[in-house]
Write a structure and sequence with these properties.
With 155 residues, the protein is mainly alpha-helical. It has a domain of 107 residues. The protein is 72% helix and 0% strand. It is built from 4 helices and no strands. α3 packs antiparallel against α4. The longest helix is centred in the first third of the chain and has 46 residues.
Amino acid sequence: MRPERPNRTRLPGWPTGVSTNRPDANLYARTVNMVRSYQFSRMTEVSGVAWIVLMFSGVMEAGWALSLKASAGFTRLWPTVAFFVLIIASMAGLMFALRTLPVGPAYAVWVGIGAVLTAVIGIIAFRDPVTILTIGSIVLIIAGVVGLQVAGSGH
């Protein structure tokens, strides 16, 4: 009669023949869990910074759009300079944020902040017309950004 063979469950990432009955298998599993935990906490930390950078980039997006208006077709020097500085900074912030954030919600936040701020400042500073449709559209932009955030929070 043959002796009973030990249970040889294959561990992920280990070659065939490495089983859980080896003394170092538990160490491997603990190490993998520790690394995954560190990566997740690091990713969460980086994502928090990325969201802050993304929000500032959205504000700069409104700044470059308003500078474009103030430059009068690039005929005024300082608004033109502000436009180029702000658009480069805004794109750089978006680029940084997209390294760790999902593109859909991140882009929606960036565009949403820029669009809402541009519309509100345009109403205040440039005396753009205010109608029920304008206010409703701003509310819908905000609702769309919040909806994408809520939909993306399940990931």
